[in-house]
Amino acid sequence: MDLGISGKTAFVAASTGGLGLAVARALAAEGARVAITGRRRERAEEIAAELPGAIAIEADLSTPEGVAAAVERTERELGPIDILVLNGPGPKPGAAAALTADDLASAFETLVRPHHALVSLVLPGMRERRWGRVLAIGSSGVVAPLPNLAVSNTGRAALAAYLKTLAAEVALDAVTVNLLLPGRIGTDRVAELDQAAAKRRGVTVTDIERESLKTIPVRRYGNPEEFGAAAAFLCSAPASYITGVALRCDGGLIRSL
Predict the structure, then answer these.
(1) Among residues of the chain, what percentage have pLDDT more than 90?
(2) CB burial class (10 A; 0-12, 13-18, 19+) of residue 215?
(3) Are 71 and 81 in contact (CB under 8 A)?
């Protein structure tokens, strides 16, 4: 299938590792010009050198200034942004009963505000050109809140609500807005969560992994490449009639429809 994104400009937030990197590589494989962004300049440059037409941008996307500078450079060097992939580091684990006011503020500051800033800068151009893709890398916690991830569950649910509302508002401008929700994908983030769970419960990481596999119908963790392929499709031309959805890439982990 021709995804129809060859020559499109893609901005992938936090793409020097994990799922962001997997999505960036998938988009580049389809011919998109990709801005690799992150705080690790050398790592971003190393990745960009491997991908045709890609550039590396050292950026702190947690600040309005960092967002504005990254978008400006991308559009100056690669052209107007056609595909915006929202992504960022996950917040610390923690129980809902132990949430503080600062934790709630952190959920908004890390999981909503930076993404809103990116959308606000990029969306007007997409609407004017009547073509755009906004895709957020979320979490299955949006559908079924995950134990001991209260900050993540709260912030990601708020982002999902914002994007779902936005999807209907921009649909007539041929801009789609979707979320892609990972389950247990084999990334450093999942490894960190497994390690934290093992320490909290006084068991080994292998014990945690075995328990996790029992909850996944396909009985394995997902590969980042599988997630990247799903993301590339949602950013494609053939996916123009898919908007306002939260698609799960989780091996059947979440049992609801």
Answers:
(1) 89
(2) middle
(3) yes
Q: Over the stretch 154-212, which tens digit does the pLDDT of each residue have?
A: 999 999 999 999 999 999 999 999 999 999 999 888 888 889 889 989 999 998 999 99
Helix (H) or strand (E) holding 134: strand 132-137
What does pTM read for this prediction? Answer: 0.95
For residues 29 and 2, the answer to whether their CB atoms sit within 8 Å is no
Number of structural domains the chain divides into: 2
30 and 119 together in one domain = yes
Q: Is residue 4 part of a domain?
A: no
Residues 133, 5: Cα–Cα separation, whole Å = 10
Query: For 95-105, how does the pLDDT look when each residue is reduced to its tens digit (9 = 90+)?
Result: 999 999 999 99
Tell me how many degrees the CA angle 60-62-66 measures, rounded to the nearest 5: 45
Q: Look up residue 107 and give its two tokens.
A: 């959920």
Q: Which long-range contacts (CB under 8 A, 24 or more apart) does 61-64 make?
A: 61/13, 61/14, 61/37, 61/88, 61/114, 61/117, 61/118, 62/88, 62/109, 62/110, 62/114, 64/117
In this structure, the answer to whether residues 28 and 40 fall within a common structural domain is yes
Task: Give dist(CA 218, CA 216) in Å, integer.
Answer: 6
Same domain, 196 and 158: no
